[in-house]
Design a protein that fits this description.
Length: 78
């Protein structure tokens, strides 16, 4: 199954990383998006999913807040 997912490009980057990842983020913190269509946008952390290693963020676009879900590898602290 892992080989099939790799061939189809369905491998999650965080699945390859060490399972004992320290969560360096805090709810309410502002981070910078470094990957995807919102690259270089600043976002505020609304929720942290430790099991899936995902962040629920709010990005401000055209004066409106837009929800966004990214993994830990797609953001960096500012």
């Amino acid at each position: 199954k892992n080989e099939i997912n790799r061939i189809l490009g369905k491998v999650d980057e965080m699945a390859l990383a060490d399972e004992n990842v320290n969560i360096p983020f805090v709810i309410g913190e502002t981070v910078k998006v470094i990957d995807g269509p919102f690259n270089s946008f600043n976002a505020e952390i609304e929720a942290i999913d430790e099991h899936k290693k995902k962040l629920k963020l709010m990005v401000k676009i055209f004066g409106r807040k837009t929800p966004l879900e990214l993994n830990f590898m797609q953001v960096e602290k500012i």
